Amino acid sequence: MLYGCRILLLLVVVALRGTPRANAAMQEAATSAQDSVQPQQALDNYKKAAQDAQRIAEARPSEENLFLYASSLMKLDYHSAETIYRFAIGKYPSSVRLHAGLASALEGQSQLDEAAAELYRASELDPTDPHPLEFLVEAKYVPPALSKKVLDGLLRLRRLYPNDGLILFDYEMVLSNRYTDRSSAAPPDFVPVLKKALRLTPQLPEAYFQLSLIFEDRKNYEEEVRALQHAVQLSPQDARFRFRLAMGYKRMGKNDLYLNEMSIFKQIQAHSAPAAP
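Request: output the structure for the sequence above.
Response:
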């Protein structure tokens, strides 16, 4: 199944570049991917969708049809999806969304370096499209060999889109290496930069979460909790945010709030794949 940011990745890229039929197909796929009430029925639906997409792609192997076929396979088998993405890229090497889709298939097989390389390749195909690098950074892993290239690409995007807070946040996270190494001290301007990113784009739960980690390190628990409350408000089903907020309440001696938040955290954990707090 296509989890987390990769569902968003494919949907956003299709929405930007696809036709209404492609948009509708991917929206339907995303909705069914989240339906776990009847897993066997869902699996049968995925198989039928893949078979239908295969027939369409074989009859007319356009870039869009091959993309939709490979995307339908993501819910069944990552390796098969990878095979179709690679075939499609051979026919349409300049397609940003095919490279992004291949990155998703590779990530699903834990080939993180290769996935990052594909996303960077997608960013080179259209240097004005911020999505490939945004999704690369969202995976929270930038291979050392790509770090400078990714930074250069984000800096270019910052100049193109100076009012985009997400690009500024991504740039600061890669520059500071905070995703990879939290043990090192944050740069002196880390908090001001993240606050600027949030002023530009308030809907960034991860930015609030990163601020909360800084405030926790500084033992500023009131600011930590305040940042986490914003993160939870923006992304209420994120188990990390819930767990950290519960711990923040506990540190402040707010036991009732701690117990309530832990209860919500456990409910989320029971209905989702395990997420490390």
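The chain has a mean pLDDT of 86.
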